[in-house]
Design goal:
The protein is mainly alpha-helical. The protein folds into 2 domains: about 60 residues, no CATH class; about 30 residues, no CATH class. The chain is built from 5 helices and no strands. The longest helix is centred in the first third of the chain and has 21 residues. It is flat. The two termini are about 20 Å apart.
């Protein structure tokens, strides 16, 4: 899992660098950004970026976090997972 996570991060870092080097216009956006966008500023920026007039109806989103439980309550072998990820770059994600 750690190996996959590192390859995933390397891939998106490389993609980001290639976009910068190509001087293309781009916007970095994550699902987490959209979910936490209470002021709707990210959605407004996205609409402006793609050339759509910002209208209040466009800023409404049906997206909502599906589960508010912690991973410890959702993953049956959480203790084992926690032990394997202890001290790694993925450890903090266990407690979000």
């Amino acid at each position: 899992m750690l190996n996959w996570s590192r390859k995933y991060d390397q891939y998106f870092y490389s993609l980001h660098q290639n976009l910068i080097n190509s001087e293309q216009n781009f916007m970095v956006l994550t699902y987490e950004d959209l979910i936490s966008d209470k002021s709707k500023s990210i959605k407004s920026s996205l609409l402006e970026f793609i050339g759509v007039s910002v209208h209040p109806n466009y800023l409404q989103s049906p997206l909502a976090k599906q589960n508010s439980n912690s991973l410890a309550n959702l993953v049956s072998n959480f203790n084992e997972l926690e032990e394997k990820l202890l001290g790694t770059e993925l450890e903090p994600l266990l407690y979000k």
